[in-house]
Specification:
The protein is an alpha+beta fold. It is 13% helix and 12% strand. It contains three helices and six strands, in the order ββββαααββ. It has a two-stranded antiparallel ribbon. Strands 3-4 form a two-stranded antiparallel ribbon. Helix 1 packs antiparallel against helix 3.
Length: 225
């Protein structure tokens, strides 16, 4: 039930003011109290980690602690710091399983292998870096062809690198059905012992970018070539 009044007028210069007051007559209980939480957007860090100080100062608001009568209380203001480790990027999956804080064509290839089920992801961090689409949410818990496409955009620098985020584990897939768009496996006729080709046909609507699917077949009758 406290009143919080931030002063952000000098935030672009690296100074933030905060005033927090409890209702009249109320005081904090003895002990450790979290009175304010300040959140920052951190910069992308490459090379080595950065340690940056967070210091108390008197601009734009003076350092004071008051009692319920408005009298100043003797207080020690202890400065702190923030440590920013080297940034992990969306799509950075090579070398397995940690990445190397760089994005290139090898990352794109590896994401494609994950999407196609050729390689198996081994930990939550690797899944989070491989699950890159949609870009706006840094993934959605599904490994699919759009992740491969987006990883290619990162690896070829079409899109700027993005700090890792999004889900750390897969979620149940959702397939949208209905509407005029269809994907068909066309029928085929062959001669036993010779190849038979089965076209997969998309009835497109003009906004498609990628497609992914799996097919089932009887391996005692057909052999994939």
């Amino acid at each position: 039930d406290g009143l919080l009044l931030p002063n952000t007028s000098q935030a672009v210069s690296g100074r933030l003011g905060v005033t927090m007051q409890l209702p009249a007559g109320e005081t904090f209980a003895p002990g450790t109290q979290e009175v304010v939480r300040v959140t920052f957007l951190s910069a992308t860090v490459s090379g080595t980690q950065i340690v940056t100080p967070i210091n108390f100062t008197n601009t734009p608001i003076n350092r004071f602690v008051f009692d319920a009568r408005g009298s100043k209380l003797a207080t020690n203001f202890v400065n702190g710091s923030v440590t920013l480790t080297v940034t992990d990027f969306e799509g950075d999956v090579t070398p397995r399983q940690t990445g190397d804080h760089n994005l290139d064509i090898f990352d794109w290839t590896q994401v494609g292998r994950f999407v196609a089920g050729l390689d198996v992801i081994t930990n939550a961090s690797e899944f989070q870096r491989a699950d890159v689409a949609p870009k706006s949410t840094a993934g959605d818990g599904h490994l699919k062809v759009t992740d491969w496409v987006q990883a290619g955009s990162y690896g070829s620098v079409i899109d700027a690198p993005m700090p890792v985020g999004g889900p750390t584990a897969p979620v149940a897939p959702t397939t949208l059905t209905g509407g005029p768009r269809t994907v068909n496996i066309a029928g085929g006729t062959g001669v036993k012992g010779l190849n038979v080709t089965m076209p997969v046909i998309l009835q497109s609507q003009g906004n498609e970018n990628a497609i992914g699917f799996s097919v089932n077949f009887n391996p005692t009758v057909l052999k994939y070539v």
